[in-house]
Specification:
The protein is an alpha/beta fold. It is built from 21 helices and 18 strands. The strands form 3 sheets. A 6-stranded parallel beta sheet has the order 2-1-3-4-6-5, with helices on both faces. It has a 6-stranded parallel beta sheet with strand order 9-8-7-10-11-12, with helices on both faces. Helix 14 packs across helix 15 and helix 14 crosses helix 21. The radius of gyration is 24 Å and the shape is globular.
Length: about 550
């Protein structure tokens, strides 16, 4: 057994089902011999995104792995690592590397020094004997604490070297921590004393699989819950206390109740300031619960903090509050839920003309509305792409089950949604997996529709085609006036068909539901389907102060 084969065997023991990859990489053949299925992509960024989608969909219980060749493979993969790092997704990256005797010799590209700032941990296997040790550390970092990509670089000479003796390796268990009991008591007091509490939930709730506990706490206190973009679906948005999710666009209930709040309790979130996160207004008492102490006091001063796993933290708070309130809390007070639902109705009524619009070119919100009413949402996984699809989908798609929505975007790379949707479908083959993207996004990654077709990954891609980068109009008026720089075109239906998929072009509102229905049936047979929707340039977004 050589070094590459040792890594393959470790992946097998760790339960790896798929290896997203791009040649030339000897690990591809090594894992295939062990019945781990290689998914060879067309471009490395998509390969990293496929691995991301596997990890994201399964809360890291089944880890996504991506392997690429030395040099250009590592270079092209960097954007995928950056996106996973920004979104705290545990992904194992396994690049090849130049021989150890070429270490530090220009122009050879060595992954470790370049990836150290965009990974949770990065190491090079400098000796064949260290393969088990370094892989053990990699899986521990992937499974413990806040998520993030981990990289193990394998130089060619180490990979070809013979491993001495039998491979001794057992799968790595994770560790969870619980917050200090005294601090839990103090936070419980603050929550009970708050006059207008808002819970601010991040994706840490989903990684901890703590949706039920979050519901229990919200109902016990009768307080509203908002989620971050990445945390969307961590709290059911059909719940009477749900305020929805916030990105660049937001819901009116979030804006109203966050403005009124005296205390904001963040659970499983980083509280990072971002263009893609709702800012916390000044003057609020902030309680921050996270499994990463590096996030506390990062962008917002925390008045109180709890360090620990979201599920263990919520259980501790529930127990403490129950002990003080005889298990009753505010369960009998439905005034907050009624107020939330009143604002939500008012907001949706404002937007109903767009949801039901019959205009052509079509209104993007009409497509989203029809799609949401058509699909079985608990058994659907949907994501947006960067740009307008994110801002149109995030506030209005009502998520009803954990991980039924993949919100992403601390880095906002056009086209990333295609890869994570493929990863989601590999992880959850019985679910309908949907990616909504713009024409600029598919222009960047569209060739990987062939990857989905070749590997029988039955995803649904909906393209909003308005022939322009509409949201960029204000950024380059002279370039548009003189050279039409915002405009771009293409027949994406024809592209998808040429790459082996099924496709349809939709131009009228009454064609939306029949076309989507047909496309969904196509995906059930294992074929990717693309619905190209000719839409208006409009960029009305749900934005409230």
């Amino acid at each position: 057994m050589n070094g590459v084969q040792a890594v393959a065997e470790i992946l097998k023991r760790e339960g790896t089902e798929f290896l997203a990859a791009f040649p030339s990489q000897p690990l591809i053949d090594a894992v295939a011999r062990l019945n781990i299925r290689p998914i060879v992509c067309r471009q490395e960024r998509i390969g990293a995104a496929i691995a991301d989608g596997i990890s994201r969909t399964t809360n890291g219980k089944r880890l996504g792995v991506f392997s690429m060749q030395q040099g250009p493979g590592s270079e092209n993969s960097l954007p995928g690592a950056i996106q996973a790092f920004g979104d705290n997704v545990p992904v194992l990256l396994l690049p090849g590397g130049s021989a150890t005797d070429r270490l530090g010799v220009d122009p050879n590209f060595f992954a470790v020094p370049h990836y150290e700032r965009v990974t949770k941990w990065a190491a090079q296997v400098n000796r064949i004997e260290r393969v088990p040790e370094l892989m053990r550390r990699a899986f521990y970092h992937l499974r413990t604490g806040k998520g993030g990509p981990v990289l193990v670089e394998m130089p060619t000479d180490v990979g070809a070297a013979e491993y001495p003796g039998a491979l001794e390796y057992s799968p790595v268990a994770s560790n969870r921590s619980a917050p200090d009991s005294q601090e839990v008591s103090e936070v419980a007091t603050a929550l009970l004393n708050a006059k207008n509490l808002v819970i601010h939930a991040g994706q840490g709730v989903m990684y901890a699989e703590a949706t039920a506990e979050l519901e229990q706490l919200a109902e016990l206190l009768q307080v509203p819950v908002m989620t971050t973009m990445a945390g969307k679906s961590g709290f059911p948005e059909n719940h009477p206390l749900s305020l929805g999710a916030s990105a660049v666009s937001t819901t009116k209930p979030i804006s109203v109740f966050l403005a009124q709040a005296d205390v904001v309790f963040g659970i499983g979130c980083s509280f990072a300031r971002s263009n893609y996160a709702k800012a916390i207004p000044a003057g609020k008492v902030i309680i921050h619960s996270t499994n990463d102490p590096m996030d506390v006091h990062k962008d917002y001063a925390a008045d109180m903090a709890l360090i620990g796993d979201a599920k263990l933290t919520l259980l501790a708070l529930i127990a403490e509050i129950n002990s003080r309130t005889s298990g009753v809390g505010n369960l009998n007070d439905d005034a907050t839920a009624a107020a939330v639902q009143a604002v939500k109705k008012e907001w949706l009524d404002e937007w109903m003309p767009q949801f039901t619009s019959n205009e052509t070119p079509m209104n993007q919100y009409r497509i989203i509305w029809d799609l949401m009413r058509l699909v079985d949402r608990p058994n659907t996984i949907i994501t947006h792409d960067a740009g307008s699809p994110r801002d149109q989908l995030t506030p209005f798609w009502e998520s009803v089950a954990p991980r039924s929505y993949m919100g992403w975007g601390k880095s906002t790379q056009l086209g990333y949604g295609l890869g994570i949707t493929m990863g989601a479908k590999l992880a959850e083959p019985d679910k309908l997996c949907i990616n909504i993207m713009g024409d600029a996004a598919i222009g960047m990654v569209g060739m990987d529709l062939e990857t989905a077709a070749r590997n029988n990954i039955g995803i649904l891609t909906i393209v909003f085609n308005n022939g322009a980068m509409a949201i960029e109009r204000d950024t380059m008026p002279m370039a548009i006036e003189k050279y039409g720089s915002v405009y771009q075109g293409g027949d994406y239906r024809a592209v998808a068909e040429a790459l082996g998929g099924w496709a349809v072009r939709v131009e009228k509102p009454d064609e939306i539901v029949p076309s989507l229905t047909q496309a969904i049936e196509i995906t059930k047979a294992g074929s990717p389907a693309l619905v190209e929707c000719i839409v208006k340039e409009g960029f009305d977004f749900s934005r409230y102060p």
